[in-house]
Amino acid sequence: MDAEQARQVDSMLRRLGIPGVVAPVDPENPAGLWGVFDQADPEIREDATADALAAVAAAFPSSSPGPAPKKQSGPFRGFVYPPKKDED
Question: What is the pTM of this model?
Fold first, then answer.
């Protein structure tokens, strides 16, 4: 991800309470790729991008996990208004 995407990911992680530090993969190149890490120290940090993505996915379950709902068959309730007669 780039720096702008990293900013959005960082914001999402904080809003959802998901732990992780979003930082450049290469601390010397902030214009390069970014990732999610377990801590800020580049010397001892470990990549946590996959865990963060899984936590975000779990926070937003699919809207249709099961089969599609059945279409309603049979009569519908409602009103039918007859057209107005033109009076000449």
Answer: 0.62
